[in-house]
Backbone:
């Protein structure tokens, strides 16, 4: 699809409004408060509102998308949501003084997709009651879980960045994303391909089987992290991790000032490490 003049005008208008907020002095003040919190010397409690019911918040068409190009329509969606949040309930959110453009990078997943029955379906919402079919019933099924594979189309990423520079020239600086933010939700995935009740039962009846399944998911996840390391595709400049800003002097002292795109540096922007991971996960991760 050819990029239209109208699409460009819509994006430039939104970018100008975003930058008006992003360049306010309060952004720097909030960064310092977040760094104080994250170094364990809190000045005051910090508040960030996240995981919002966006389908219920579109007042006066503030969230109504206008861009036709599929890629830039997704970009418009993110931009509108940041602007909306800053207008109505910014609390302690921090806006980067630039626009981050996604890379043309691929994430294979685990090769086995959940089979889901959705109840009380609401097309406007991403949150619905769901029932997951058990796809992991024996050892052979465990082998269906494949290693995560990361890919990067550098030529396409370069094309997207060139287009971004053309669209936002004179309005907002653009920065290429550094890659992926891994969420090590290995239990989350397993519950989706087995069902929560089935896991509870197997914890009692077949603990060895459940350990084998978790080991396969863990190994598949580590493979993906190693793949992203090789391609240097870990996002060390994203400023939030699981509903909280992660500014620290050691890892992200300022917007865009990440310390490297390798997961082996174990930055909060890369890895969320729950305390119930399969035994040996962290040791393998840092070897």
Residues:
């Amino acid at each position: 699809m050819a990029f239209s003049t109208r699409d460009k005008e819509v994006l430039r208008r939104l970018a100008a409004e975003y930058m008006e907020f992003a360049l306010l002095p309060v952004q720097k003040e909030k960064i310092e408060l977040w760094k104080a919190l994250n170094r364990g010397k809190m000045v005051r409690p910090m508040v960030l509102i996240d995981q919002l019911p966006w389908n219920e918040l579109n007042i006066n068409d503030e969230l109504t998308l206008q861009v036709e190009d599929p890629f830039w329509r997704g970009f418009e969606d993110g931009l509108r949501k940041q602007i909306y949040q800053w207008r109505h309930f910014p609390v302690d959110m921090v806006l980067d003084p630039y626009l981050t453009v996604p890379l043309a990078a691929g994430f294979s997943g685990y090769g086995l997709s959940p089979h889901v029955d959705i109840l009380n379906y609401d097309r406007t919402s991403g949150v619905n009651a769901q029932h997951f079919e058990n796809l992991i019933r024996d050892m052979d099924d465990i082998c269906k879980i494949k290693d995560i594979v990361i890919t990067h189309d550098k030529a396409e990423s370069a094309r997207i960045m060139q287009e971004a520079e053309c669209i936002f020239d004179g309005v907002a600086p653009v920065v290429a994303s550094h890659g992926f933010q891994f969420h090590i939700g290995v239990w989350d995935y397993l519950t989706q391909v087995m069902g929560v009740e089935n896991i509870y039962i197997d914890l009692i009846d077949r603990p060895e089987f459940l350990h084998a399944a978790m080991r396969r998911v863990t190994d598949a996840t580590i493979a993906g992290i190693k793949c992203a390391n090789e391609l240097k595709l870990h996002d060390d400049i994203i400023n939030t991790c699981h509903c909280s800003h992660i500014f620290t002097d050691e890892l992200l002292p300022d917007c865009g000032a990440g310390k490297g795109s390798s997961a082996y540096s174990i930055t909060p922007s890369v890895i969320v490490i729950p305390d119930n991971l399969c035994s040996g996960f962290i040791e393998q991760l840092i070897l």
Summary: The chain has one domain: 5-286. Strands lie at 99-101, 105-107, 116-119, 129-132, 150-152, 174-176. Residues 263-287 have pLDDT under 50 and may be disordered.
